[in-house]
Amino acid sequence: MPIASILLVKGHAPDRLQGVVKGVNDVMVRVTNAPRTTVWIEEIDPQRWAAQGVPAAELLRTKPLSEIDSPLVTVVMIKGRPVEQHRELIAGITEVLVNELRLDPKAVRVNVLETPAESFGIGGLQANVFFERMK
Q1: Which helix (H) or strand (E) holds 131?
Q2: Which range of residues forms the domain containing residue 12?
Q3: Taking the CB of residue 108, how many other CB atoms lie within 10 A of it?
Q4: What is the CATH number of the domain that holds 12?
Q5: Has this prediction a pTM greater than 0.85?
Q6: Strand, coil or helix: what is 8?
Q7: In the 3-class helix/strand/coil scheme, how is 42-55 assigned residue by residue?
């Protein structure tokens, strides 16, 4: 069930974005052993992204995208997974973005959010009810 949403400044090569989606998905499957994960990327127009108060569109005039992009990855999981999984997800996802997009690791942000099973829906049911019916 883990889901990852990745926000990036628009402009990365499509093959690099595909590598990010595949790499992050692989990390999530490996770390969580979840049978199903979801990963997507949302690209933000450089006019709508600022770093230190300066629109990315302006920064891109003098710097490459890899120097100004500061991706935010939000991972949502049902509460109760060990903190070691959080640690491995953060490290693994950061490594994928660094390798695929050639970013400084300090620019990558990963936020692991845990949600109670009662607060997450699958197929119109609370996750705890859904999982109970799957047994």
Answers
A1: helix 127-134
A2: 3-134
A3: 21
A4: 3.30.429.10
A5: yes
A6: strand
A7: EEECHHHCEECCEE
CA 56 to CA 76: how far, in whole Å? 27
Q: Do 3 and 24 contact (CB within 8 A), yes or no?
A: no
Amino acid at 59: L
Residues paired with residue 60 on neighbouring β-strands, in sequence order: none
| Integer angstrom CA distances of residue 21 from 3, 29, 85, 96 | 11, 12, 19, 9
Contacts of 84 (CB under 8 A, 6+ apart): none
What is the number of domains present in the chain? 1
Separation between Cα atoms, residue 28 and residue 23, nearest integer Å: 9
pLDDT digits (tens, 9 = 90+) for 29-78: 999 998 889 999 999 999 999 987 899 999 999 999 999 999 999 999 99
64, containing H or E segment: none
